[in-house]
Design brief:
Two copies of one chain form a homodimer.
Chain A lengths: L8 H12 L3 E3 L6 E4 H18 L5 E4 L3 E3 H6 L2 H4 L5 E6 L3 H12 L8 E8 L7 H6 L9 E11 L12 E11 L1 H21 L5 E4 L9 H10 L3 E6 L7 E10 L1 H6 L10 E8 H12 L8 H7 L2
Helix pairs in contact in A: 2-10
């Protein structure tokens, strides 16, 4: 089971400040918070900002729920690479007697998990996952490929932590590109620069860097080295708390991975390539609150102008 | 395990129509759909409409994630009343060998659930559940109580069905009132009428009725009879498909239930009463699409004026 990752002194202090000011609402579980109106207003403004920045790509919009068919994770290698982060939905399987026993144990604080069976659903770990099978089912992409705007989607990572910027349930604001390799790479590079400029316009100090995913287990080092060498993942990092910067956006080039898995082809029948970008809306919100203070009405005018034009 | 509930012929036809027009996106799991831009635009407009209708109550806004601490369900009797609808989050518990075996089994389509352990999280079954412990933790309510606007929250009900209006993962648009009994009852009655008027202004034909929750097992009939006799739950129903109308909004008076569980008191120290209302945004969206057609630009002008003023 994922162990609690304690926060640094700076992270603990920021979390306490956000809670004591009522900006986040504690739930009793590490990394699970309610959002106040102040917090939600910033999340919503960031969502709108990305929507506007993506409009020039003429994306097709979709919105997906926070759950995914279990079969998707089973097909796309997530369980090989990130078993520790996945969340699986279980549900009650039994009759009257089992229901009574389950409820009685729950009331007594005892283990009632034996009455639960795995369902065909898991929690969505990345906002773009439902988009690939949907696009594969449609037939070949049009010439020039397509861009998808997936809005602000709730995703789950099972990593309870003291750092308020490391939530278990949070919004990924994702845009996805599907097409020929050169189209997809050019789009990814354009957005990397565009995103850095957007975050800079918010008074943050963004740094772009090659990055790797948090692979699990024995193969982790090799997978990360290969990913880094091919520059498949970039992140934008900003200073939120000591001791190190926090990734607030990422840009991932999947090559043929998802297209091969779900049968996505270009207009001329070749296997498509895909890339996605995701902004971590809660992380950017926390970065803004830390940088500019807890009262957004007192933020610098140029920052307010970007968020609330 | 919850059995698939087949749709009526009319429901199956509507589901097929929504999918073939690309308004909903199939996932392969019953009751789990992606939303097209057309669908999402209506959901978003309904959300805004409720926000505007609630503004006169001067609510405090919160937004909660689609997950809830497991301890909440264990304390608030949900597992006694609705064990069949609950979703529990499980996660991987093991090392390298277990991870390899889990992934291998998943690839072969075999059962890998033995490597999963219950976490301290469940799926949120009702949008208002996280609000009560948050309010209890704050201390006594102000004089006159408070109203909370919880926005459009994703909730989960484990009831796979053919009826497209019965989704497993959907948006509840909730508003909550906490205060003295007379304040709470008056608010609930006002909103019941206000909501019926709103739905009527959308060209639907709403009917208000006393209702009961889908209690599980042996005690179900008695619990439902008691709930009905005390008129604790009202629903607004509209005709979507044969053979019967569909509930698209509900109004629930909890009396002292949540306040007692989470220690919510009025300004003068009495146990508070609570009530909530929830609009089923996807159900209303489907009702509108069925009633006015699949092209919202061609909907009657008065309906468009309400949704896109």
């Amino acid at each position: 089971m994922a162990e609690f990752r304690p926060g640094s002194a700076d992270q603990d202090e920021l979390r306490q400040d956000l809670l004591s000011h009522g900006i986040l609402v504690a739930s009793g579980v590490a990394g699970l918070y309610g959002h106040s109106a102040t917090f939600d207003d910033i999340v919503t403004a960031l969502d709108r900002m990305v929507t506007a920045a993506a409009a020039g790509d003429r994306p097709e919009r979709f919105r997906f729920p926070p759950l995914l068919p279990r079969a998707y994770l089973e097909r796309n290698n997530y369980l090989e690479s990130f078993p520790h982060l996945a969340g699986t939905v279980f549900s009650f399987d039994g009759g009257n007697d089992e229901a009574s026993e389950q409820a009685a144990r729950a009331t007594r604080g005892e283990d009632w998990s034996e009455f639960q069976r795995i369902t065909d659903l898991v929690l969505t770990p990345a906002a773009c996952y439902p988009a690939y099978p949907a696009m594969g089912a449609r037939g070949p992409l049009p010439e020039g490929g397509v861009t998808l705007d997936l809005g602000a989607a709730w995703v789950f990572r099972h990593e309870p932590a003291g750092d308020p910027a490391r939530m278990q349930s949070f919004h990924q604001r994702e845009v996805v590109r599907l097409g020929a390799p050169d189209e997809v790479c050019a789009w990814r590079d354009t957005w990397r620069d565009r995103a850095a400029a957007l975050l800079g316009s918010l008074g943050l100090n963004p740094k772009v860097d090659v990055a790797t995913d948090p692979f699990f287990g024995r193969g982790a080092r090799m997978l990360a080295a290969s990913q880094r060498q091919q520059q498949l993942k970039f992140e934008i990092l900003v200073e939120i708390t000591d001791p190190e910067p926090t990734a607030v956006a990422s840009f991932n080039y999947h090559q043929e991975h998802f297209a091969h898995t779900y049968g996505i082809t270009t207009f001329d029948g070749a296997t498509a390539h895909t890339a996605c970008l995701g902004f971590g809306l809660e992380r950017i919100t926390i970065a803004l609150l830390r940088t500019h203070g807890f009262d957004p009405t007192a933020w610098p005018a140029p920052v307010r102008e970007v968020l609330w034009p």
